[in-house]
């Protein structure tokens, strides 16, 4: 199988971390692609009509896409338990929260990079950051016991989301007022899977 991805994509990073945690690196090859909302790579469009990465190319089966679909598939394929049935709804909710952080943060990135400066809307970017801030504060307030439990996709998603904030929006300071979450992220970043997927400077 092949994973179409970009190292800078937080959604792709979720899949890449899972590949390493589930010992699937010999099963799935990572294929770095260059694509954008304005110029979709042909192989990406062929795999996903929405033109988004990541996408997973499977042998003798249609490609699948959306990071949450891919990670569920890989978890099932590997026979691991990153979506444990005993706390499935909590894992899915935390993963959805992490994905929402990524979506809002990515929207800010695109606004700043894709629009001419005189057409950018700072108020809109601030509104996206407000979503990020609420979500981060909610995780710090409500989810620390889960984050400190057995490894699952909720934790991986949160770690990748926070790392993307560090990569693209560090100046906005997500750590302020979220001390427990910041400490957890610092520790989680020491995992081999996270270190192996750090975006090159």
Give short descriptive properties of this protein.
201 residues, alpha+beta, Glutaredoxin, Glutathione S-transferase Yfyf (Class Pi), Chain A, domain 2, 2 domains, four-stranded mixed sheet, 9 helices
Describe this structure in words.
α1 (10-21) links the parallel β1 (2-5) and β2 (29-32). The chain has two domains: 2-78, 3-Layer(aba) Sandwich (Glutaredoxin); 85-195, Up-down Bundle (Glutathione S-transferase Yfyf (Class Pi), Chain A, domain 2), CATH 1.20.1050. It has helices spanning 10-21, 42-47, 67-78, 88-114, 122-142, 144-147, 153-169, 179-188, 192-196; strands spanning 2-5, 29-32, 55-58, 61-65. It contains nine helices and four strands. The longest helix has 27 residues, at 88-114. By secondary structure, it is α+β, with helices and mostly antiparallel strands. The chain has a four-stranded mixed sheet, covered by helices on one side.
Radius of gyration: 17 Å
**Can you tell me the CATH architecture of the largest domain?**
Up-down Bundle
Overall average residue pLDDT: 96
Number of strands: 4
Strand order, largest beta sheet: 2-1-3-4
Count every helix, treating DSSP H or I runs of 4 or more residues as helices. Answer: 9
The CATH topology of the largest domain: Glutathione S-transferase Yfyf (Class Pi), Chain A, domain 2
Shape: globular
CATH class of the largest domain reads Mainly Alpha
Work out the helicity level: 55-70%
Order of helices and strands: EHEHEEHHHHHHH
Quickly give the structural class: alpha+beta
Please indicate the count of domains. 2
Gap between N and C termini, in Å?
28 Å
Largest sheet: 4 strands, mixed
Residue runs with pLDDT of under 50 for 5 or more positions: none
């Amino acid at each position: 199988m092949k994973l179409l991805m970009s190292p800078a994509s937080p959604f792709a990073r979720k899949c890449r971390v899972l590949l390493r945690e589930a010992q699937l690196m010999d099963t799935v090859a990572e294929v770095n692609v260059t694509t954008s909302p304005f110029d979709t790579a042909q192989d990406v469009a062929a795999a996903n009509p929405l033109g988004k990465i990541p996408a997973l190319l499977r042998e003798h089966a249609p490609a699948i896409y959306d990071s949450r679909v891919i990670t569920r598939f890989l978890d099932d394929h590997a026979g691991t338990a990153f979506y444990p049935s005993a706390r499935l709804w909590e894992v899915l909710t935390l993963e959805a929260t992490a994905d929402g952080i990524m979506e809002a943060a990515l929207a800010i990135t695109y606004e700043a990079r894709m629009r001419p400066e005189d057409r950018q809307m700072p108020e809109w970017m601030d509104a996206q950051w407000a979503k990020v801030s609420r979500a981060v504060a909610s995780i710090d307030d409500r989810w620390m016991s889960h984050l400190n439990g057995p490894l699952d996709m909720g934790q991986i998603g949160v770690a990748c989301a926070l790392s993307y904030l560090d990569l693209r929006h560090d100046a906005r300071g997500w750590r302020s007022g979220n001390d427990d979450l910041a400490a957890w992220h610092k520790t989680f970043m020491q995992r081999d899977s996270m270190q192996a997927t750090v975006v090159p400077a």
